[in-house]
Amino acid sequence: MGLERKRERTISTYTQQLKKVLDDLLPEGPNEATLRHRVEPVLAEFCAEVEVSQAIHDEYMVARGKIADAVFDRLVMEFKRPGILSSLQTRAKAIEQLKEYVEGLAKKERRKRLAGVVFDGEKLVFMRFRAGHITVEPPCPADRVALEKLLRWLAGLSSGTALTAENLARDFSIDQPRTQAAIGALYHALTDHLLSEPEGMVAKLFEQWRLFFSEAIDYKEAFGGRKLEPLKKWVAKAGITVDTPGEAERFFFALHTYFALLVKLIAWLALSRHLGPKVGVPLFTTLEALSSGELREKLREMEQGGIFRAYEIENLLEGDFFAWYLYGWNEPLERAIRELISRLAQYDPTTLSIDPDETRDLLKKLYHYLLPREIRHNLGEYYTPDWLAQRLLEQVDQEFFDDHEVAVRKQRRRILELRWLDPACGSGTFLVLLIKRYRELGERLMIPEEELLEAILRNVVGFDINPLAVITARVNYLLALSDLLEYRKGPITVPVYLADSVLLPELGDDLETSGLYRVRTAVGVFMVPQAVFAAGRFDRFCTLLEKSVRSNLLPEEFLERVAKHLDLSEAERKAATGPLRALYEKLSELHRQGMNGLWARLLKNNFAPLTVGRFDYVVGNPPWVNWENLPDGYRDDTKKLWARYGLFPHRGMDVILGKGKKDIAMLMAYVAMDRFLKPGGKLGFVITQSLFKTSGAGQGFRRFQLGEDGAPLRVLHVDDMVALNPFEGASNRTAVMVIVKGQRTRYPVPYTVWRKKGRARFTYDSTLEEVKTVTRTVKLFAEPVDPDDRTSPWLTATKPALRAIRKVLGKSDYTAHAGVYTGGANAVYWVEIVSRRPDGLVVVRNITEGAKRKVPKVTAVIEPDLLYPLLRGRDIKRWRAVPSAYILMVQDPETRRGIAEEELKARYPETWKYLERFKPLLRERAAFKRYFTRRDKTGRIIETGPFYSMFDVGDYTFAPWKVVWTRIAQISAAVVSEQDGKPVIPQETITLVSCDSEREAHYITALVNSAPFQFATSSYSQEGGKSMGSMHVLENIRIPKYAPANPVHQALAEASREAHKAAVQGDEARLRKIETQIDSFAAQLWGLTDKELIAIQKGMKGGEKCVS
Predict the structure, then answer these.
(1) What span, in angstroms and rounded, lies between the C-alpha atoms of 56 and 372?
(2) Which CA distances in Å does 585 have to 566, 576, 846?
(3) Phi and psi dihedrals of 882, rounded to 5?
C-alpha cells in the first residue's frame, strides 16, 4: 500500500477512535485534566503510527512562567474544560492564552511557522502562526471533519517539506543545479530538434507558441541591443549561450516549458495527496520507480489531461505546446525531469490546508523567484502584489470583506449568488484571494463544503489570452480549493479559460458571414455556425469535433454525426453544412500537421465569454499595452471597438491612436462593463493614472458612457498610488478605480492619494495592513479641469482648494511651444566648441553621452553661422537658465524643413560635409520618415525635405526673449535672453513662451513660478510625468497679456528680475522673501483671498494638495 493511502486510512481510523473517546467521555462531565488524560494518548499513538518524527512534550515551558499542556513539534495544544469555548468571554481568554504560548514557542525555538489548537472536547479553535502574524479561525464543533483536520495538522506540520513559495524557490530557482540542468537540457533538446527536424513535431509546437506569444511579446524589442546583456549573464548559469533575440526566444520557450512542467507536477502532487487514496488513481510518488518508457508514457497521459480527468478535473490540462519535450525525449532530459520529480516527492501539500496564507498565488511567487526582475520587466511582466489586489477587492465590496460578526452573517445569501470575473487573470492573484475569502466566510457561516465548492466554481471566473498564465491560474485555483475537492458531486471544470476578453466572437453582419460567429486565433479565423452555439449544443459540438478530427473521419461522416447528435433541424443543417465542412477541413489539416487537437479545445475556450453569463463584479489588473505596441492584425481588428465605445471622440482614428498613447486596458474596461457586468454591477481595475490626468489619451475614456446610447458609468472612487510604485519599484503610475454601471458620474469624485511615511518601506510580499502602517493617505476630490468639457483632464484637490483653483484656471493669452526636436539624433546636432580658428571656422566635437542611438564621436571643422547656444533640461533651475552647449540649427523656420541642400553646400560647405557623414542615420529617423517622405504613384519613397531636416522649429524658436521651463517633474521657470548676439535654442523637453520684451518675460516667469500656478498645474497634471509642464499648461491656466500700465504686472516683472539676481547670488533667504511677495501679487491678479492663498501655500508644502 502506498504511503498516502496508508496515511489516509490511519487518519480515518484514529478520527473514529477520537470520536468514540469523546462520545464516551463527555456525558460524564469531565474536567480539563481528565479530557487531556484520555485524548493525549490517542494523539501520541497516531503520531507514532504515521511515522511523524517529532518530539512530544507534556506541560512544556514555552516561555518564563508559561507552560503549555502539550507541544507536538510545531503544534501547541491547550486543553480546556468542556463548555469553555461556548462562552464568548472564556473563549477569548483561552485564545489569548494559546497566543502567548505559540508566540513564546516561536521565540524560544526561533520558529517561523507554528500552529495551535484549543480543545474543550465539544469545540476546537485552530490557530496559525506565520512570520510573526497570528490567524485565529472561528470555533468549530468537534465532529468528524474537525477531528480529521486536527490529525492532518499533526501529520502535516512535521512530515515532508512544506509546500510554500519560499521552499519551492529554494529548490527550483535558477541558482539550483537541478534547475540549471533541466532548463539546459530543454534548451539543447529544442535546438537540436529544430536543426535536425525543421518540419517535425517539436518545430511545429514551437511555431504555435511563437504565434501565441507574438501577440504579447516582441523578443526583438525586449532583447535587442543592450537589453540582451543581462539575459546573457543570467542564462550562462544554465550553461546556455544567447547572442541574438532569436536565441533568446528559444530560451524562453525552454524556460516556459520548465515552469509549465513544474506547475503541472505540483498539481499532480497536490491532487495525489488530497484525492489519490480515495479515488484509486496512480499516485505521484509512484513516478520515481518507473522505467524510461513508462515515465514518458505517464507524462504523456498527464499532458493530455488524462491523469487529472481521473481525479474528475475535466479541463486542468487540454494539451498545449509545452508538451513538446515528450517528442524531444533524450537521456539528459529524462535525468533532469527525474530529479525534479524526486525532489517534489519530498513535499507535503498538507500545507495548503494548514496555512492557506502560505500558498496564496503560490505559483506567481515561484515565477518571481525564477526570473530576475530586470528580465521580467523587459518582457513587460508586472505581477500584481497581493496587498494591492486585496485593496481593490475591498474597495469594490467592503461589506463582503468585513470581518465583524454582524457583517459576516449578512453574507450567507450573497456568498452563494455573488459572481466575480477577472478578464485578464494572469496567474490568478484575484481569483485565489476571492477563493480564500469564500472559504473564510463558508467556514464561519457553516455552509456545507459541497455547497461552498459549487458556489466558488460557479461564481469565481477568469479569462486570459496567455496559455502559460491559464495553466498557472488553473493550478493556483485548484491549490486554493485543495481539501474542498473531495466534496465534489461529480466531474468539475476549473472556470479559467484561454480566451480574449476584448475581441469576443461576434456574428457576421454581411451576406457571406450572416449567421456565423467569427473566432480569431493565432492560426487564422474560424467561422462557426450559430446553430451549433444554441443552448446545450456547443460543448457537445466541441467534443464531437475533437473526437472526429482525432479519428480521421471524412467530412461527410463528421457532418452526419453533427446533425444526429446536435439534433439540427433541416433548415439549420442546410445553413450550417458549408461552414462546418470548412471548419472541419481546416482543423483536420492542422491535425495532420501535428497540432494535437489543441485548436478544437481552443475553440471551446474562445466561446467561454459568451457562455459564462454576467457578473456582479469585474475585477483585475488588465494589460497596460499601448496601441502602437499591439500586433498589426490585432490593432486593426479592435478599431471598430474603439469607435463603438467612443474612446477617441475628437480627431481621426489613426492620428489619435498613434499620438495619444491609447492603452488596451481602457478598451478592456469598456468591453468588460458592456459585455460581462450586470446593470448596477461594479468594475474594479488596477489602471494607469494617466487615464485621469492626460489630455488626448484619456479623453474618450472620461466620457464614462458605453458608446453613444449605452449605459452611463459612474466613477465611485480612485486610489492614486503613483508615489508608492507598487510594481517592484517600476514607475508605471498606478491607480485603482471603481466604477458602477448604470449611473452617471457625479463630480467631484472621491480621490485618495497614497504616500510613504518618510523613509518607510514595504515589500512585494507585504500584507495590506503592513502597507497601511507605513503609508498615509490624502483625501482629495476630482472634477474636470474644464467645467464645460466633462472629458477634460481631472483636477484633484481638497474641496476648498478646488474652489480657489477655479479662479486661476482658464485660457491663457499666451501660447507655449516645445523646444527643438532632432528626431532622436541629438548626438549629431549637439556639439561643444573645442576651439576657434583664425580663419573664422570653429572646431567642434559632437556630444554622444546619454545618446539613445550609437553615434560615432567625431571632431570636425564647421562654419560658426549655424551654431546657436543650446539650453538643455539640466541647464534650467528655478529663476536661472544657463546654456552649456551648442546646437547646429539647419532648419528654415519659414519652410518648416531643412535649409535647401544647394544653399547649404554653397554657403556652409564644412557644415554640409559634417552632416553628410551622418546621412544614413538621419534618414532612418522615424520622425523624418513620417514628416519628410511620401510614396509616389509607383510606390517609390520620395524625400520631401533635406535629410538633416529638424522638427518643432518656428519663428518663436528664434525669439530674443523667452520664458522656459522643463516639462518633466516640477515646473521650474526662468528667463533666457540672447547670448553672443544669438537667441538661445531650448531642446524638445523644454517648454517655451516667446516674448517681445524682457519685462514681459519676467512677468510670465513670476506667475509660472508662483504657488497658485504651481498648485493648479500639479492638481490636474501627472507630477513627475513627461506631460507635467507641457504646452497644454497655458491652455488651462489663465495668464493675461502683459500690460505695462498695470501696477500688479509691473510688480510681478520686477520681483522676477530680483529673484533671478538672488538665484545667481545663491541668497536663499532673500529668494524666499521675494517668492512670498510674488505669491501675494499673483493672488491679486487672480482674485484669490488671503485665506485661499494660505490654503494653496499650505498645500504646496504637501499638506493638502494632490501632487500626482
Answers:
(1) 42
(2) 19, 14, 62
(3) -130, 115
CA 176 to chain centre: 28
Q: What are 521-580's pLDDT values in tens digits?
A: 666 788 889 888 776 788 888 888 888 988 999 999 999 999 888 888 888 889 899 999
Q: How confident is the model at residue 218 (pLDDT cuts 50, 70, 90)?
A: low
Residue 793 CB-density burial (10 A; 0-12 exposed, 13-18 middle, 19+ buried): buried
Q: Is cis: bond before 748, omega within 30 of 0?
A: yes
**Three-state DSSP class for residue 380:** coil
Side-chain half-sphere of 450: how many Cα atoms within 13 Å? 6
Distance CA 828, CA 851 (A): 10
pLDDT confidence band for 1063 (50 / 70 / 90): very high
* pLDDT number for residue 962: 97
Select from 1025, 345, 1008, 1030 the least CA-distant residue to 735: 1025
Query: CB atoms < 10 A from the CB of 680, how many?
Result: 11
> What is the C-alpha radius of gyration for the chain, rounded to an integer number of angstroms?
34
Residue pair 722/733 in contact (Cβ under 8 Å)? The answer is yes
Which of 49 and 159 is assigned the larger pLDDT? 49
H or E element at residue 633: helix 632-644
C-alpha to C-alpha distance for 821 and 816, rounded to whole angstroms: 15
Beta-carbon contacts of 824 under 8 Å, excluding residues fewer than 6 positions away, are 852, 853, 925, 926, 927
Nearest of 74, 323, 298 to residue 202 by alpha carbon: 323
> Could you give the angle at the alpha carbon of 427 between the alpha carbons of 425 and 428, nearest 5°?
55
| 8 A C-beta contact, residue 737 and residue 684 | yes
Residue 751 or residue 696, greater confidence: 751
CA 338 to CA 329: how far, in whole Å?
12
Given a contact cutoff of 8 angstroms between Cβ atoms, the answer to whether 336 and 177 are in contact is: no
pLDDT tens, residue by residue, 894-940: 888 999 999 999 999 999 999 999 999 999 888 898 889 888 888 88
Instruction: State how far the Cα of 673 lies from the Cα of 993, in Å rounded to an integer.
Output: 43
Cα(864)–Cα(155) distance, rounded to whole angstroms? 85
* Rounded Cα distance, 827 and 834, in Å: 16
Neighbour count for residue 230 (Cβ, 10 Å): 14
Which of 1034, 1051, 1016 has its CA nearest to residue 812? 1034
DSSP state of 287: G
Domains of the chain: 3-159 (3.90.1570), 162-375 (no CATH), 384-505+612-621 (no CATH), 506-606 (no CATH), 622-797 (3.40.50), 817-1100 (no CATH)
First to last CA, the chain: 64
At residue 1100's C-alpha, the angle toward residues 1098 and 1104, to 5°, is 60
In order, the DSSP letters of 96-140 are: HHHHHHHHHHHHHHT-SEEEEEEE-SSEEEEEEEETTEEEEPPPE
CA 63/CA 58 separation, integer angstroms = 14
Burial (CB < 10 A; 0-12, 13-18, 19+), residue 1001, is buried
Q: Report the alpha-carbon distance of residue 861 to residue 859 in Å, rounded.
A: 7
Helix axes 32-49, 144-156, angle to 10 degrees: 60
**518: number of CA atoms within 13 Å, CB side?**
13
How far is Cα 1028 from Cα 231, in angstroms, rounded to an integer?
Answer: 34
